[in-house]
Amino acid sequence: VTPVTYIPVQMQKQCVSAAERIRGKPYEAFFDTELLVPADRLDLIQRGPMPEAFHVRPNPVDVERSIREIDAFPDAGWALVDGSVAFVQSRMFMPGVTVEIMRWWFLWHANEPERYSLWFPHAHVSNTVSDRDRYQDEALSYGERLYNNTNTVLEYIGPSLVGIDIHFQSPEELGLNPAFIEAGGFAFNASAWNAPSFAPDTAFSLMIHLGRDTEQGFEFISRYWIGAHADLNRYPGGEHAPAVLETMGFGPDELEGLAYELSVHDMTEFHHLAGFLPDLYRKFS
Ligand code: ZN
Prior knowledge:
The chain is of the alpha+beta class.
């Protein structure tokens, strides 16, 4: 592993304030500001975009194909796809983590911004859930608590502070084939369509998080798209994404830069989480 040694100024400041804020919380000991990632994975994303053979479009057929053929894909990578959407993909194994533990995390961390900051102290500012009572109701299933219960996150992706409304849904609601999910044994899902918080009616992103238990630990597969693409028009307001991107000043160059920054963010936050999650679960579940 190698430490993440470049931290944008805004994220340095965020880390300082998160450290102050978390003081006195029962899980304060899990606040760790040293970020470590495997050197070989870091190398994968520092050599420019992935070749076109690995450009996946945000439609169910392409998504499913990319996961069925996952052994052919690099474990991390990014690209600008079709000139208008940032694409990031990754796969990792988390020893000591299980489907059950990851579900617990997704239903635990959004209760307080301090918990969210454990995940990525330099980048995660806050996360609020639209229906807290439902989110916390232990009589309900994972899906009943998380799906269609908007998480509004504020976080740095690289130096940019972004507000995103995350609409978690079942794979089926997002358009994936239930038979594909079943055949892959993907018992964990935290996939969503997303909108910028300032334009909550415009889907400008699809995020796929699928996981399964394996002998090497929890296998976690992620795919992200942010931008505008005809394939995103299946989600609410996707057709307005080009206008929203223009408002944000996001053209192809900015989107490609975002793809790389999001790739760094994804790699950093999920390796960091994997490092403390089994112990956190033992103490707080
Ligand atoms: Zn994050």
